[in-house]
Every structure is written in C-alpha cells, then in structure tokens.
Design a protein that fits this description.
234 residues; alpha/beta; five-stranded parallel beta sheet; three-stranded antiparallel beta sheet; 8 helices; 21% strand; globular
Amino acid sequence: MSKLHRIMLVEDDPQQQANIVEALESNELLIETYALRQPAQWRLDQQLPDLLISDIILGDEVDGGFDLARHLQTFQRPIPIIFLSERQSEFDIMAGHDLGAIDYLPKPISLAVLKRKVTNLLRLTQSTHLTNNKPMFIENLQLDSHAFKATWHQKPLNLTVTEFEMLEQFATHSAGTVISYQDLQTATQGVVERNTINTHICRLRQAFKKITPEFDLIHNVYGRGYSWHTLKDQ
C-alpha cells in the first residue's frame, strides 16, 4: 500500500525521535524527521505536510517549535499541529493553541496515546461527514470539524481535539440527552480512559467559563454520564 499521509516530526532528542517514528510508522504514514527548526522550515517552503508534530525547544531555540508554527501560518492553509513539550504552564499551552495547535501533549509522552491521536486526527480531516453538516442543538455554539475549532458566543474556545470530540457529542444531541461515559470514550476512539473523563469535562467547562464565567450547562448524571442543559432548564 502506498503512503497516504505525510507527517513532519521535529524533535531534537535522537532517542525520542526514534521512539516516535517507530510508534507511528506504517504503510499509511510517511514520516519526515528534523532535529532543528531551520531545516524543517526550508522543507515547509517546498511542500506542506498533512500534520506537524513538534517539540517547543529545538536546539538553542527555546521557542523553535512556536516559530515554526508561526512560519506555517504564513501559508494560510490549515495544517494541524501537535506540540510535545515539558513546558506545561497555562501561558505556553495557550500560546500553542493561538498558533494553531490542536493538541499539546506533555513530556514524557505516551507513545500509545500519541499514535491514537494521530490516527484520529487524520481520520477526522479526511471525513466527509463534517460536523458542519450535522444538526446542531446548542445555541451560540459553532463547531468547525475541518479545523477542530469551536466558538462560543462568537469567541474562540481553546480546546484539544479530544475535548472537541467530546463537545461534539453534546452539540449533536438534543438538550438533556445523557451522553454516557461509553459514548464519550467511543467519540475519542478510546483515547480517553474512563477514570479521566471527569478531568476532560472539567477542562471543557473551564474553557466555556473563560468566555461566560456563569457557565453551568454541562451536568453530571450520576453513574451514567453527562448531559447539556439549556438556560431554560436551570
């Protein structure tokens, strides 16, 4: 089978780079590896990948990955980015999302989780059944599954792909529908473990609260899952 997707991997640690390549490489993926920003940037000028996976600190450049993402933005073509970094401050994570990252994974990374996220991401970008064409049941919420972006009251929500997939479950079901724990796991193709769903829901709520501090529309249904309530249900 011929290679279907090109992934640019930019990682300056040789062992980590090799481990990631070994975990991801398949007949469907062609992985191009770079250790530093400049060679990767030259390659971007020649041909854009389907996905960029990059560390933030590259060699002597403490923001090398961010600078690479800024260069990628100049092409005005949405290329998904996954950042890998030991830097986990809210400032760095927000900066990564502002530069187009759809996910920001902490180091040391789980190779199994990274592989699942890459598979999900490429599957979603190829999907012809976009969220935009599905019925939407939440007012003031817009989802763009092409770019994995969401807006709430016309302001951007900073979400990872996993959080976007979970939000999509609420958005495409009528208010009050219980989205089970199993439904949420299935929506992320098993990336989310049962015992971490609550953490992801908490992050999802916080993203909404940054725009509307009084947000309280995602309710826990004890032992079953979660449901989205409208304001009139309050």
